[in-house]
Specification:
The protein is mainly beta and 365 residues long. The chain has three helices and 24 strands.
Length: 365
Amino acid sequence: MKTKIVLPLLAVLLVTLGITGAAFASTDLQTQETQVLHPNHRALIGQIIEIGEDQFTAEIVTGEMLTVVVNEDTRYRSRREDAPETLAFADLEVGMWVTVANVYDDNNDFIAKLVVILPEDFDSSRIPEHRVIGSIQQVTGTGFDLLTLQGESQNFTMDDSTRFVGGLAGQEDLALDLRVVVLASQQEDGTLLAKMVAANPDGPVQLARTTGKVIDVGADSFTLFTRGQEEQTFTISTDTRFVSRGNALAGLADVEKGMALVVLTDREDADLEAPTAKVVTYMDGKLLSQARARGEVQSVGSNTLTLTGLDGETLTFSLDEATRVRGRGINSLDQVEVGMKALVFYQQTDEDTLAAQGIIILQTD
């Protein structure tokens, strides 16, 4: 039981810290192959919410959406008992929980080296819901104050269950102005209990993801009409990488109006009028026409599902035999219950009909 608790904590920390292959391989999750990964590798643990061509999007416990690019060198493994010996990208499904070992190459592109499919009964509720990066401002006998990257002060308590990793042996190593990453869970009294604390002298490269259809192509740029109904131009440089099956999208010359693309850029360039694209890849154009709704199931029947969204709005979705249901050990509609948290992918087929194409059951708060 202890391994099941500690493992998710380590996986989330690896998303932030980029701990070396030897440290990551010390958990039970990885195979020996992981030990030979690029020394600049990182890892994440999350639930697949979208699959495109040569890439997929996973939601990690912090609520962040991370796009992972795969290539011909990506390996696939499974911890499910009924899994075949040989797996491929096509075996990934929306709703699966996965751990991904990635490398940032010399261009800081986020490329999957190993994708591990976790068991269907994987308990994501063990993963702390808060991940905070900041510098130590004060240390007391029972906790510490952190100045976050957003300039806010947050207090964390500690107890015998708090673990120290990433070069920290214990509370005595928490020095003023030390930059750390903290994984914490909110207690019943509202306080944040630090479950893990690790040194974080250099933050990871943060990439932003934009999806949309190409509406214009220039000499050294192209413009997308994004999912957010906005126009966004991206500059292409000699460092921009184009990733596609069979090298069908080799460069800007192959970009055409109407294409559905995924573009990764540096988060620090988010305010620029035309940020430089770091990675450009295809996505399934059908995914752009899908909308999403997240909330709590209010009712479920053979043909409809009603959801109360995070904004309080109630939506009713039509269901048919093509509607896929995944997540948290649930594989069919008859397993969905009132009160469950769900993410619904749907299309509005007419003025009054919202057709659910996929339902992912999420972890309960």
